[in-house]
Every structure is written in C-alpha cells, then in structure tokens.
Amino acid sequence: MTVDKQAPASGSILVVGGGISGLTTALEAAEVGYEVFLVEKNPYLGGRVAQLNQYFPKLCPPTCGLEINFRRIKDNPNVKVLTLAEIEKVDGEPGNYEATIRLNPRYVNANCTCCGECASACQTEVPNDFNFGMDKIKGAYLPHEMAFPSRYVLSPRIIGTEDAKRCKEACKYDAIDLDMEPRTISLNVGSVVWATGWEPYDATRIDNLGFGRYQNIVTNMMVERLAAPNGPTQGKILRPSDDKAPESVVFVQCAGSRDENHLPYCSYICCMASLKQATYIRAQYPDAKIYIFYIDLRAPGQRYEKFYNKIKEDENVFFVKGKVAEVSEDPTTKKITVTAENTITGEKIHQEADLVVLATGMQPTAANTKLPANLRFSTDGFIVNDYDNGGMFGAGCANKPSDVVSANQNATGMALKAIQTLKK
C-alpha cells in the first residue's frame, strides 16, 4: 500500500458520505467558494435515494433530484470527489483536522466509456447489493444506469481470475488496470461533516416476523427496488416465490422499531413509505387488497396528512390498529398468514396474504460501523452535534431519522456550521 501526502488545504471542508445529505452539504459549501472533499465508500454517489423508486414530496424518481446535483458537481471545480474511499482516522481540532483516507481500487480508470464490453466478456456473476441481493450482476458492472461517476467497476471477487483477464482483453480503451492497489492519502481540512446516512434495520433479527425463512416476506426497501424500472423485475412488484402478481399484500409497520429489543425509537418516515408503496401496488394491481397493520400512524406535516387521507379513501386499503405477533406460511401456496390483535375491537386477526412487507426502520450507519473520530453519539448511534466546540457535525440521517426534504434542510444548516468553523 502506498501513502501519498497531500498539501494542506487551508479552509477546506471534508464531507463524509455521498448520499443526498452529503451532496447537499458539499454543494452548498462549494457554491459559495469553499474547497470541499466529498468522500464516499461506494463506487457511486447518491446513497439510499438512488435505490428508491420514488420519493416525497412530489413522488419523483431519483433521477429528478440526483441528476441536477451531479451536474452541479461536474460544473464546480471546488468539489473533489473520492469514491470507493473510506475514512481511516480524523485527528485534530476545529480549523485544523488531519484526515487519513483509504482509496480502494476500482480496477477501471478514467478511460472508461461505459461501452459494456467488459461485462459482456465476464462470465462470473456476483450478488447485486444495489438490489439487496434479489438478483445477480456480472463481475464487471456499472452500479446502476445513472451512476456517478459513470464508470464501470470490477468486483474484487474476480481479480486474479481468468475472468479479469477476459475483461481486460475485451476493453478497447485501455480502461482496465488490474494492477491497481489500495492507497492512503492524507488531507488537512478545517471542518468535517459526517453525512454517513442510514441502513435498513436487519429484519433477520426480528424472529417473530419470518424474514429470511419465508420467501414472500420482504422489506420496504426491497419493494422500492422491485417497483423501480431499473430493479430486478423491471418495475413489476411480484411474489419472490413464483414471480406471480400479488392479489393481497400486508404491510407490517414498526418492524423492529419502537421495540426495546431492536430500535427503541420511531424512524419518522416508515408510515409514509408504506402508504407510498401502497400506491405502487394499487397502480399495478387495481383489484389487489392491501392491509396495513400499525401501532400508530405518523404523517408529519400537512402535505403528508393530505396524502394519508387520500389513501384512506381507497376501498381496497384496510387499516388495522394492532401489533403483529407472528407470521406463518402455507407450504403449498407459499401464502403468509399474519396474526395480530386488533387493539380497537379486541378481535384476534389471522390475515392471509400473497406478499408481506416489513416496514423496517432507519438505523444510523454509525450504529454498526464505528466512525474513526472524536464524536458524541446517542445510545442509538446517531451523532450528537457539539455546536459549542464545533468543527465536526453530523448531517441528515446520521443525526436523526429524516425524509429527503428534512435531510436536505439539515444538510444545508451543517454546511453553514462547517463554514462558520473556518471563519472563527
């Protein structure tokens, strides 16, 4: 591993995480004249928003918001983007931080034209993490159709194999470099914004809800990918067991949330995500029956409340106030039966469905991956901002559960805080 020492970048800002919050922070600071280093662990920018089919408030596809931000980055020389990059350590004090960053090899250089010849030549398939493992992709791949930077990646799994050689031989532009190695760089910056985002809570840990045991139980983020035109089923929401159209769907709210054994807090947007996904199903299957089991429903703000009221008018959408206790599967039909007690009527309900969707909560990435810096965290892993001392700040869902609008507003504020640190 080689180590490069970068010249001190006085007055620079480091933004960790290239999701919607990180993009907003970086651009807000860069467009008023500050040098920004944007570091992202994935080979592309966009974060969780890139995985959505649509997002509030206008039910836009990801291209709607990300495309313009990518254009702004291309047009702004103040933003330096580092993908496949991980922060190893941040030391120092406000106005003078030393950040050590590991750059992992992409095995594809800037000559790449996205012609796809390397993927055609590659024979190995690997799980597609972008689609939560619901399909496979070639070992030479473009992460998704609007990936930024628009450049292919070779999976480390094929390096050293005949497939890697085939990919290199197929490339007409000398874009594949199989000799790339990890390297480490050091940056001197004045402030750091941690926009490290969130992860869907691991549904396999919720024993009573059957995820991982029964094929036709999926998570809310998996439904986003199923509904997306560039998803594993080209936008059709189908039962995983037999690829058939579901005639009935159950949404299980607070799957692991508001539970001392899992996530003790409310994730803010899960209720609205399920209501949004109900519209996906209703659009594809007008006769399908949808059952939403909930503890409480949260529609934060007038616009969301209006959306909720519109869904309630749908005669094929049924709301059941009750926490799901258990699920079971018919081994012949693969249908799932959800068992819950209706807390309003006291009736015990056994609802059968073709597909069950678990509304798993947001867990901050920092809860599972320790951030290598002197930061304060809540007991749930969210960054607690220390505005008095300043210097390093958590933005977006690294700070608290948020929807896209709230995350953007928060990120704009953190860009200002980062700038104020440089001014002190």
From TrEMBL:
Xref: SUPFAM superfamilies: FAD/NAD(P)-binding domain
Residue ranges constituting the 4Fe-4S ferredoxin-type domain according to the UniProt record: 104-133
Q: Does the keyword Iron-sulfur apply?
A: yes
Annotated coiled-coil segments of the chain? none
Task: Provide the alphabetized UniProt keywords.
Answer: 4Fe-4S, Iron, Iron-sulfur, Metal-binding, Oxidoreductase
Q: Which GO terms describe its molecular function?
A: 4 iron, 4 sulfur cluster binding; metal ion binding; oxidoreductase activity
* InterPro entries tied to this protein: 4Fe4S_Fe-S-bd, FAD/NAD-bd_sf, HdrA-like
Q: Does the keyword Signal apply?
A: no
Q: What is this protein called?
A: Heterodisulfide reductase subunit A
Which organism's genome codes for this protein?
A: Desulfonema ishimotonii
The organism's taxonomy opens as: Bacteria, Pseudomonadati, Thermodesulfobacteriota, Desulfobacteria, Desulfobacterales
